[in-house]
Design brief:
The complex is a heterodimer of chains A (497) and B (204). Chain A is mainly α. Chain A contains 20 helices and 4 strands. Chain A has a domain of 225 residues. Chain A starts with 10 loop residues before the first helix and ends with a helix. With 204 residues, chain B is an all-alpha fold.
């Protein structure tokens, strides 16, 4: 008998699971009106996420595995978990105002957010195909329910159903790929798999066709989850239909989890077969950048615009992964690629949180509006909010010296370093196109006249998050080490093992 | 040996025949019942292979739960199956060609298949000899030790499923009268019942 597995590395996850169950009890048995109960559960859930973040920094940063090799900790998963927890806590904080306003007081919402976050943490800590799938499903199932939480709203339920059907398809692809990979390797553990694949690329008969099929299917499943072209179809509809705080959540934490998982699976398990998958990553990266840039131009709904923007941004981040697969240019270049991707990801999350804070604050007569033209005259009715949104948009467009510029700079630099010139060139071109619609928003805010002003009243939590995000974006160039150092440590952790 | 072979062919033939009946039967309820027959015979095949746990699972989960669910769906939702079958011939060429392409791809994959040289050794939990341990016991021995993480994770996924079902469907209806047993017991007889002395021959 082996006795109890070492639970310390998984302490943050165990804590989150216990919190979710305890909060369910609080929600069910607490006396009082639904609004008060929901508010209490929501604040407790946010507090738990912050506590879990501290637990991650305390217990999960050293490299190691537990639970019979199913669960891995180290600098890379810890970096992703910190981002996930911070993004989840902030989006949950921003959501209270919206739901109380819409009269949707369901205490299950924060609990589902906790469970989804737990699923994401399990995804980035997965060291095994089955553990990966379990985390992914825990996250996805919670997200499906969250998308349709406003069940009397037709668009909300529609987006939940669409997300569910396409997510189930993606899970099927992932499982099919996993079974082929397992069939070849005889194991589901990433470390053992990596050993098996080490000599497959230059073996006599070349890599097995079945294995390549498996890898491609696994990539399709993961590309669905990060909403990369050509598996992006669900994104605009789901982002538009889901309640705005849920969209803000979708655009931040799950993106971190899915992208980190993508990197970890590709670099960890299939690292030696990079020659097989690098072209695919290059293709979906180019396609995502191009589609994100061109399709966003015609949008009038700001949530749909953000959906296409997120597709485009995923394209830029996948450049980093493509560089990570450039085996010929040496480990240092590969590591730079991953590092640049992590920096871009962190900056993107901050910009997204800030932008969605502004979208959540777009109200007229107490009701949320989401048309781009509703922003007209914001510079006069609420100059602070307009300035913050302008900062985020300039940053997304990549105007120096804002953080978004540096994110793009690092990614393109690493692409050039690895000799992927075409990627860098297409990236620059599509970000020029992207400038158009980002800056159009600024033009509407500052130069168009409003027929009717937006409300001046903005919730405290939202304005705090927006202000904090704007300051980080503005001040990034003064002390970039704040993000780049930990990203470098995380990327180094990925290559050390 | 011959008994085993006979049993195998019996189970296999009935499985295939009832599977065909599932998709050809006109009445959907008959389809579901044929499905139960197919499951039972597949369970028999599992027993022949020495996988008695899977056989039990198939009977308990599929025959017990899944088919009952199917029956509920068939009976409760008023689905017009004749309408569903319309256009079958129209879409068949497309469906068949997709199927053939998939089959060809699978043939390519299987044709070029080879295992990693060390794959056989990598099996995380080799099957113990049937004489030393039944496979129910063997599964239990690793499910609650080596794979406790996945077991608990699956539990959490089910919890989310339950929360989701409640969140999306449960609603408080107005005007529902609930039975409160405590109130019923605590009722004062004098308040709810009226005692009358009825004289004989007069009525109330």
């Amino acid at each position: 008998m082996s006795g109890l597995p070492n639970l310390t590395p998984a302490l943050p996850e165990i804590f989150m699971a216990c919190v979710a169950m305890a909060l369910l009890m609080v929600g069910v048995f607490m006396k009082g009106e639904a609004k008060k109960v929901t508010r209490t559960v929501s604040y407790l859930a946010t507090g738990a996420m912050v506590l879990a973040l501290l637990l991650v920094t305390a217990f999960s940063t050293t490299a190691g595995t537990t639970f019979n090799g199913l669960f891995i900790t180290g600098a890379f998963p810890a970096f992703a978990k910190v981002l996930i927890l911070a993004a989840s806590a902030l989006t949950l904080l921003m959501s209270r105002d919206f739901f109380e306003n819409a009269n949707v007081t369901r205490f299950e919402y924060p609990i589902l957010a906790v469970l989804a976050t737990l699923g994401m943490m399990m995804m980035v800590s997965a060291n095994d195909l089955i553990a990966l799938y379990m985390g992914l499903e825990l996250q996805s199932l919670s997200l499906y329910v969250m998308a349709s939480i406003m069940r009397n709203d037709l668009r909300s339920t529609e987006s939940g159903l669409k997300y569910f059907v396409l997510g189930a398809l993606a899970s099927g692809m992932l499982l099919y790929g996993s079974s082929l990979v397992y069939g070849f390797a005889g194991t589901t553990n990433f470390e053992v798999m990596a050993e098996m694949f080490a000599h497959e690329q230059d073996s006599v008969h070349g890599p097995s066709v079945g294995l390549i099929f498996g890898i491609v299917f696994v990539m399709v499943g993961l590309a669905f989850k990060v909403s990369a072209v050509p598996f992006h179809m669900w994104t605009p509809d789901v982002y538009e239909g889901a309640p705005t705080p849920v969209t803000a959540f979708f655009a931040s934490a799950p993106k971190v989890a899915a992208l980190s998982l993508f990197v970890f699976v590709m670099m960890g398990a299939f690292g030696d077969l990079a020659a097989q998958w690098q072209q695919i990553v290059i293709f979906i990266s180019i396609a995502s950048m191009a589609l994100g840039a061109f399709a966003a131009v015609a949008q009038t709904n700001i949530k749909r615009l953000m959906a296409y923007s997120s597709i485009g941004n995923v394209g830029y981040m996948l450049i980093g992964l493509a560089v990570g697969g450039a085996v010929a240019s040496g480990a240092e270049t590969q590591q730079n690629g991953i590092e640049s991707m992590l920096v871009y990801l962190s900056i993107y999350i901050i910009m997204t949180l800030g932008t969605f804070g502004c979208i959540l604050a777009m109200k007229r007569g107490g009701d949320n509006v989401e048309n781009i033209n509703d922003l007209a005259g914001l510079s006069k009715s609420n100059p602070m909010m307009a300035a913050a949104l302008a900062i985020f948009m300039f940053s997304m467009a990549g105007i120096p010296p804002l953080a978004g510029f540096f994110g793009k700079l690092y990614v393109f630099q690493s692409a050039l370093e690895a000799g992927l010139v075409s990627l860098a060139v297409i990236g620059v071109l599509s970000s020029v196109v992207g400038c158009f619609y980002y800056i159009r928003l600024i033009k509407i805010m500052y130069f168009d006249d409003a027929e009717e002003d937006l409300d001046r009243q903005v919730g405290t939590e939202i304005s705090m998050v927006v202000a904090a995000a704007a300051i980080v974006i503005l001040a990034f160039f003064i002390y970039p080490g704040f993000i780049t150092d930990s990203a470098a440590a995380a990327a180094a952790g990925l290559f050390a093992g | 040996m011959i008994v085993q072979a006979l049993a195998f062919y019996l189970f296999a033939a009935v499985t295939v025949a009832s599977a065909v009946m599932v998709i050809t039967a006109k009445n959907p309820v008959h389809s579901v019942l044929f499905l139960v027959l197919a499951f039972f015979n597949t369970a028999g095949l599992f027993v022949l292979m020495g996988a008695e746990f899977l056989a039990m699972l198939l009977v308990v989960v599929y025959c017990g739960a899944v088919t009952v669910l199917f029956l509920f769906v068939v009976m409760m939702l008023d689905i017009n199956f004749v309408e569903l079958r319309q256009g079958f011939l129209q879409y068949m060429p497309l469906g068949a060609s997709v199927g053939i392409i998939l089959l060809a791809e699978l043939a390519v994959v299987m044709g070029g298949w080879h295992f990693a040289p060390e794959a056989a050794k990598a099996g995380a939990a080799p099957i113990p000899a049937i004489e030393t341990m039944t496979n129910t016991h063997a599964l239990g021995a690793i499910l609650y030790t080596d794979y406790i993480y996945l077991f608990q994770a699956a539990g959490l996924v089910l919890l989310v499923g339950m929360i989701g079902a409640i969140v999306l469907t449960h609603r408080q209806r107005a005007g529902v009268r609930r039975q409160v047993i405590r109130d019923q017991i605590n009722v004062d007889v004098q308040e709810v019942a009226e005692f009358k002395k009825v004289e004989s021959g007069k009525g109330v």
